[in-house]
Amino acid sequence: MSSTPDLGPVPKRVDVGVEQVRRLVAEQFPQWAGLPVRAVSDGGWDNRTFHLGDAMLVRMPSAAEYAQAVEKEHRWLPAFAPVLPLPIPVPLGKGEPGADYPFPWSVYQWIDGEPSSVDRIADPLAFAEDLAGFLLALQKIDPADGPRPGIHNWFRGGTLRTFETYTRDGIEALAGHTNVDLAREIWAAALEARWDGVERWFHGDIAKGNLLLDGGKLSAVIDFGTCGVGDPSCDLAVAWTMLTAEGRRVFRERLSVDDATWARGRGWALWKTLATAMYSVDGEDEGDEAVAKESLRVLDEIYSER
Question: Which domains does the chain have, with CATH numbers?
Fold first, then answer.
């Protein structure tokens, strides 16, 4: 039996401030040196994001592991943009380490839009249809030479067994808060569901913060740091985190997802939700209650399919 990959220690993050970004831009992109730099509200965890003037953003990896995605994004996003049905970020410039900042970084054009959430979606069925159409177009892109699962994307597109310890820990931690027997059953089914081995492109983090809305309609998809080629079932987790029951049906039919792929997608949704819930259900930090409530809501959606 082959061993599963080791996710390694928690990444060691670095702080990035406005003045530091301003110096880096001035040193490496003098044509933009006079533009104001402002931190983006809720500007991300894996990457810190800053406004550069009114039409650009600066994206700064917060750890060495996340910096591995920079080269990939500069290589592939310009190729994706012309063939995808929704706007995506396209890099305008690639920065190098400097000004006490140790990683490569990027300048992108700013894409207007409101971060999505379940309550902001105007038409759940149209949202499901549009999102499926985007993923279908992404999966049709030639996967040759695309990056396989690895630390650069935390093994998205690979085997779910990579996350078995995290999932089982989450199940044990949530005893008394959720139906742990059903969670075990769903997880076992996901592990048993075989992938056909046909590599396809995937985004890797189809989640509310990376799906932008305009007037309640899906308008753009951002943050391709976890993209790669492999098993695309990781992109199906959104079916339970953001879609209604009818939206899931539309989403699945549009993508023509078979039973095994759907089961693996459900497994991706389960482990990611458990990982969030286990740190919030008994937490004392501000916001833990809201996170726990949302996580338990998603678990109910995952459990609703029998």
Answer: 18-110 (3.30.200.20), 115-303 (3.90.1200.10)
